[in-house]
Write a structure and sequence with these properties.
Helix content: 40-55%
Oligomer: single chain
Number of domains: 2
CATH superfamily of the largest domain: Periplasmic binding protein-like II
Radius of gyration: 20 Å
Number of strands: 10
């Protein structure tokens, strides 16, 4: 996620315009997660000035929302944080009568979201994607003879494989919410297990491969894949696609590809919700409904290379985005994906400790 950099001009223009409180909407979203012209077009169409702030983690956003007075009207937490925010009363139930474009949302995707928001009462998805394997095609072929190995998580979890990969560099995204469910699922365990013993097994599997992992990082692997500094990563689909695009633009001869292994992987969503004490509620709904317009959200997807949940937007996607199976997987792949879920507090603490040990190799 968050693969591009929002233009400074847009940020400055929207920030200065935020002083017009009566015609303002205050937004918090991930970095580079919007098209450069979205906010300017919104203001042109509605007369409402948009201030766009950036949060770099769900935890930072959650801590702000828990205060009850963030000043934000629309924010974008990840789906697995939604249940916590609902229970804490930090976000409000949506008045769907103010969102006539709600009808454009894909009902199958909305059904998957009910695991954390029954009835889809508190939010809708902004973008969605997967975590999978990003790889340097030529280097994988040089090691294994072909790229068939990328079709299974054995590429990472079988020691003989990852030992070979370590010769050209292995990186894993610094995101336990993605990597631990992937590991559990690979081991044949529930991807969102509530059993501490299952996490012991996941810990053992991850520590077995730890010596061969160059680093854990949220985004460094994007440039490293593009530049040839690593050859295999566990990362977000959009990040890998961005790495591939960067390599093409640099004309460095590096071919980057993305694979969703046959065992399945995580399906994540970033949401659009309204904080409890939104200062410009009406304008917030106007902005939320604007994002549900097919041409608007398609333009964003075309810009950032992530899938949107708007069924009516498909006709406005570029062929490069619409036909990319790394962005819009076919049904047989979608059926193997599992939605990221909230974990009980005790298990969440356990996973935090496990992940810290793994990163520090202690």
């Amino acid at each position: 996620m968050r693969v591009n950099t929002l233009s400074l001009a847009v940020l400055l223009a929207t920030a200065s315009a935020g002083a017009l409180a009566d015609e303002a909407v205050n937004i918090s979203n991930w970095n580079g997660y919007i098209a450069d012209d979205t906010l300017a077009n919104f203001t042109k169409d509605t007369g409402i000035k948009a201030t766009y702030d950036i949060h770099d983690s769900n935890e930072v956003l959650e801590s702000k929302l828990m205060t009850g007075n963030t000043g934000y009207d629309v924010v974008s937490p990840s789906n697995h944080f939604l249940s916590r925010l609902i229970k804490a009363g930090a976000i409000q139930k949506l008045d769907k009568s103010q969102l006539p474009n709600w009808k454009n949302l894909d009902p199958q995707l909305m059904k998957k979201l009910e695991v954390n928001d029954p009835g889809n009462q508190y939010g809708y998805p902004y973008m969605w994607g997967t975590a999978g394997i990003g790889y340097n095609v030529e280097k994988i072929k040089a090691i294994f003879g072909n790229t068939d190995v990328t079709r299974s998580w054995k590429m990472f979890f079988e020691e003989d494989n990852i030992k070979k990969l370590s010769q050209c560099g292995v990186a894993i995204i610094d995101n336990p919410t993605q990597v631990l469910p992937i590991t559990l699922n690979y081991l044949g365990l529930p991807p969102h297990s509530h059993e501490p013993a299952d996490y012991k097994k996941a810990e053992a599997a991850l520590f077995k491969i730890r010596p061969y992992v160059q680093y854990f990082h949220a985004s460094k692997y994007i440039s490293d894949l593009a530049n040839g500094n690593v050859c295999a990563v566990i990362g977000f689909n959009g990040d890998v696609i961005q790495a591939a695009a960067s390599a093409r633009e640099a004309k460095n001869g590096i071919d980057i590809a993305y694979s969703i292994p046959d065992e399945g992987t995580t399906l994540w969503f970033d949401m659009v919700v309204m904080p409890k004490n939104a200062p410009h509620e009406k304008n917030g709904y106007t902005y939320m409904n604007y994002l549900l317009e097919p041409k608007v959200i398609a333009n964003i997807s075309n810009s950032i290379h992530y899938a949107n949940p708007n069924a009516a937007a498909n006709e406005f996607l570029t062929p490069a985005v619409k036909q990319d199976l790394a962005i819009y997987p076919p049904k047989e792949v979608m059926d193997k994906l599992f939605t990221v879920e909230e974990l009980p507090a005790a298990i969440a603490r356990l996973t935090t400790r496990l992940w810290t040990k793994l990163k520090t190799n202690t």
